[in-house]
Amino acid sequence: MINSSLKELAAALAARKISSVELTTLFLDRIEKLNPTLNAFVTLDRAKALASARVADTKVGAGGTALTGIPLAHKDIFCTAGWRTACGSKMLANFVSPYDAHVVERFNNAGMVLLGKCNMDEFAMGSSNETSHFGPVKNPWDITCVPGGSSGGSAAAVAARLAPAATGTDTGGSIRQPAALCGLTGLKPTYGVVSRYGMIAFASSLDQAGPMAKSAEDCALLLSAMAGFDPRDSTSLERPAEDYSRDLEKPLAGLKIGLPREFFGAGMDDAVRAAVEAALAEYRKLGATTVEVGLPNSNLSVPAYYVIAPAEASSNLSRFDGVRYGHRAADYGDLNDMYAKSRAQGFGDEVKRRILIGTYVLSHGYYDAYYLKAQKIRRLIAADFAAAFKDCDVIMGPTTPSPAFKFGAKAADPVQMYLSDIYTIAVNLAGLPGMSIPCGFDNGLPVGLQLIAPWFGEARMLGVAHQYQQVSDWHRRLPAGLEI
Ligand code: GLN
Asked: Where are the domains of the chain?
């Protein structure tokens, strides 16, 4: 059961081979055993999880959905009523949310059972989970390596089979990069497809929630549940509901895969290149053809992102001032001193760095030179993709330049850390859907293949991933010592 697909779990629940309470207990016991090593979960509540499993058990087969009774983990960036929502930060370490995020509400309505809240980089700023106030998450494939970030807790939880699936958020790569480093399938939808209501904001024009799971098939089921219009998020798109599983069985004959020459140049590890090339050869066998495309402005994506994302973050994080909720300094003088001390104590170094950069690039005199310029580059990057998609149906390349790195390897050098997302960030700037699927290993560490689709191309992209997962078994492998 611990290693079953969502479909298999749904079938077992429907046939009464197992109850949701029993299934939830299996996962909670495994979490109890392995989480002290992995640190994937920061908040657990056995009684709450079992109470919702009991409710789910009354609904399985009686008005439930395909997901009713199946346990799930949420990244701790999603507000969950009655559960602590700390967002990886000391600032919110005691914050219990009074309401549910849209995504949480959706999964609750579908009858899924919340197992616990997953560790993450502070306010989703990071690529290694080393910025979490609650300590780093360990990569289940090698506990001396990072799991990626910022959704590293979600990734480690699913990779170690502590949860059948999890939610993540992706502002510059935070679903795809940890999915790649932990051997998972993770999808970032088109901007606006999933509501951001109740998802603690980092960079509002880039943030999107998405599923992290063992396969494309599972991601399709989860995305069908979490996507949809929500009037409480002004950037939520009013579109008809979609069944994201609809193209899973579609054959790949005639599929045109675009390979951006900028992604295949220097900077990629040899082992990553070999795994990606082998996956492309598999796709050709499945009937696809490959064509070289250009994304000439992609070298500007990291610098543009590190102007835009901090600018938005500096504005979003101004709400954490110690007044209404969150950390407040114990000793202070006047009101300004209270703000300053609360923020100085509540935020970690990376968050402070972003607030400083963001405030600087938005300040009078620098706005045009940095922020406005970055926005222009953003437009050019989106136009590059639009032009590339005239020649292909889907773009492929590496998700990350290298497999998981050791703790501390990049922590002292922010620019090196920022470059971990060199292949993922352009997708967020353009608002496109992207995903990562396992395509091989290097020295026992997973390697990810990135798929990028045109706007609203999720269903086809999931089908393209699923077809590969029918002829490969990378996504089925388990970390040594964690076999079931
Ligand atoms: N690693 C990137 C950053 O630190 C992206 C994070 C994310 O997608 N949330 O900003």
From this structure: 6-255
